[in-house]
């Protein structure tokens, strides 16, 4: 049995870092993600952009890392943004309500929209 593999690439520019993840984020690889993101904060990075374009799967252990690091970043006046999550990762964020806590963007800079129910404020405004 092969262990899940995750490739992590970090590129810094001034006080901003782009962290590109590729592969699977699960209990075996989540500690690596946490280590890289926390290292960014220790290095004085103020904005961490996490590119999830090539993440095949992210489970609750990966979500916990993103929530914890985002909270830590906010405490030190930094921020974490997730970019281009897969449909599976978007569902995980929305199903857990984490989309309201994490800044997430899709290609073109659009933020994912929560599916609304009739009577929801944002759904009514969108229908007009």
TrEMBL record:
Any Pfam family matching the protein: STAS_2
Low complexity bias spans: 106-116
Sections of the chain in a coiled coil: none
Renumbered residue ranges of the record's region Disordered: 96-128
CDD domains (alphabetical): STAS_anti-anti-sigma_factors
Gene3D superfamilies, per database record: STAS domain (3.30.750.24)
InterPro entries linked: MlaB-like_STAS, STAS_dom, STAS_dom_sf
Compositional bias ranges of the Basic and acidic residues kind: 117-128
Every STAS domain range: 18-97
Name by which UniProt lists this protein: STAS domain-containing protein
Source organism per UniProt: Streptomyces werraensis
């Amino acid at each position: 049995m092969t262990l899940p593999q995750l490739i992590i690439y970090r590129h810094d520019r001034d006080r901003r870092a782009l962290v590109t993840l590729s592969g699977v984020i699960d209990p075996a690889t989540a500690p690596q993600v946490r280590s890289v993101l926390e290292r960014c904060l220790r290095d004085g990075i103020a904005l961490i952009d996490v590119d999830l374009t090539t993440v095949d799967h992210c489970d609750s252990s990966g979500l916990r890392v993103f929530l914890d690091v985002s909270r830590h970043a906010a405490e030190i006046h930094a921020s974490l943004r997730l970019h281009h999550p897969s449909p599976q990762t978007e569902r995980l964020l929305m199903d857990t309500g984490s989309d309201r806590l994490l800044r997430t963007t899709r290609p073109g800079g659009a933020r994912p929209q929560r599916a609304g129910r009739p009577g929801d404020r944002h759904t009514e405004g969108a229908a007009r």
